[in-house]
User: Which sequence fits this backbone?
């Protein structure tokens, strides 16, 4: 009976919606809605043609780091009263991510397991009204739509994600799975023009052009801020090393270049591109790589990486002791470390100061690269929907 309930998609969806709703109401009532206020005011400031990247201490703290197109993306929520808009925004995040995961070509029992595995990490993200669940969905659907030969819409999501939060550009990693590469490239160009111009409809061409210039400058400055040893960001492979060795000025390139080399090696296995397990392993690699090699990664960003962890785990045909160790290690140190399940002393003394939340995902990413390089052509997972 319990197993049947746990495998009921409607119950899982209801729990995700409940998590989003309760979290949003709780955070709104205690005034912990700063991120939502930043998002809402991207729309307001675009209408008013005020800088999207200046500080507005009377409205919120911190800066906006999203592109001008986000003004239209957040508009349906921003025009509502804050409490209602914030609750609906969080529910929207839940619905979009559940939908995206459900579109992966896997058995429904494996889809449900992915949703259970990601539930707590989703909660961590949504407590901060984060955009990261939607970014996770954009990356997953970028792959899914290419697999379904809907390249035009895959390109739409890749460009939209990139124009909102740069992370979306990793969807280009699925280019080689496309059977309509010229159409895909043309679609990328088309959507780039559309999303570049669209915010001008509620502001002006001059304002939007200037906003892109300001956005670039703000992202460069933010990258420098992230490297500070006291930063709650840079929960990455670079951050772990920087914070452990007390070397804040250690260059990202020392990690990014070897990381990109390893990331790219599986692409030499051209004969594996049609193998569905290979494709899903690569999807997992992309989701994790995006986070562990970003100095902007913070705890709520890990919903992106953890979706990769979950996909990797469920497609393992034979779960070895090593597989189980990595998975359990990730559940404890990555997913549950921000919660009271991990003693506060350990969390505050070791996990946060040394960015250890990244460690299990780093180990799993290396494991995925190994599997991508050694997977046999005849090997495949059961990937059909039931």
Assistant:
């Amino acid at each position: 009976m319990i197993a049947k309930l746990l495998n009921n998609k409607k119950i899982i969806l209801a729990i995700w919606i409940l998590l989003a709703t309760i979290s949003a109401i709780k955070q709104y009532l205690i005034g912990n809605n700063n991120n939502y206020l930043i998002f809402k005011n991207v729309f307001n400031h675009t209408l008013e043609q005020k800088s999207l990247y200046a500080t507005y201490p009377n409205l919120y703290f911190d800066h906006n780091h999203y592109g001008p197109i986000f003004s239209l993306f957040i508009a349906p929520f921003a025009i509502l009263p804050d409490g209602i808009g914030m609750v609906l925004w969080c529910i929207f995040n839940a619905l979009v991510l559940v939908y995206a995961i459900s579109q992966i070509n896997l058995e429904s029992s494996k889809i449900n397991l992915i949703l259970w595995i990601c539930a707590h990490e989703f909660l961590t993200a949504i407590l901060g009204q984060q955009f990261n669940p939607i970014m996770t969905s954009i990356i997953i659907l970028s792959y899914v739509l290419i697999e379904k030969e809907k390249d035009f819409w895959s390109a739409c999501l890749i460009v939209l994600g990139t124009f909102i939060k740069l992370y979306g550009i990793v969807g280009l990693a699925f280019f080689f799975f496309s059977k309509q590469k010229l159409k895909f490239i043309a679609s990328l160009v088309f959507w780039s023009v559309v999303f570049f111009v669209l915010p001008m409809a509620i502001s002006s061409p001059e304002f939007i052009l200037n906003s892109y210039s300001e956005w670039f400058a703000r992202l460069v400055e933010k990258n420098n801020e992230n490297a500070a040893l006291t930063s709650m960001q840079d929960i990455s492979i670079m951050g772990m090393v920087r914070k452990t060795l007390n070397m804040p000025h250690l260059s990202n390139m020392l990690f990014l270049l070897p990381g990109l080399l390893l990331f790219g090696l599986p692409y030499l296995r051209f004969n594996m591109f049609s193998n569905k397990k290979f494709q899903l392993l690569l999807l997992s690699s992309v989701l994790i790589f995006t986070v562990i090699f970003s100095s902007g990664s913070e705890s709520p960003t890990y919903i992106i990486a953890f979706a990769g962890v979950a996909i990797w785990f469920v497609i393992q045909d034979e779960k070895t002791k090593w597989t189980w160790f990595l998975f359990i290690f990730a559940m404890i140190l990555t997913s549950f470390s921000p919660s009271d399940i991990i003693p506060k002393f350990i969390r505050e003394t070791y996990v946060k100061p040394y960015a250890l939340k990244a460690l299990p995902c780093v180990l799993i990413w290396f494991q995925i690269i190994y599997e991508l390089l050694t997977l046999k052509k005849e090997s495949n997972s059961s990937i059909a929907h039931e």
Remarks:
- DSSP finds 18 helices and no strands in the chain.
- The CA atoms of residues 61 and 99 lie 32 Å apart.
- The radius of gyration is 20 Å.
- The chain has a mean pLDDT of 93.
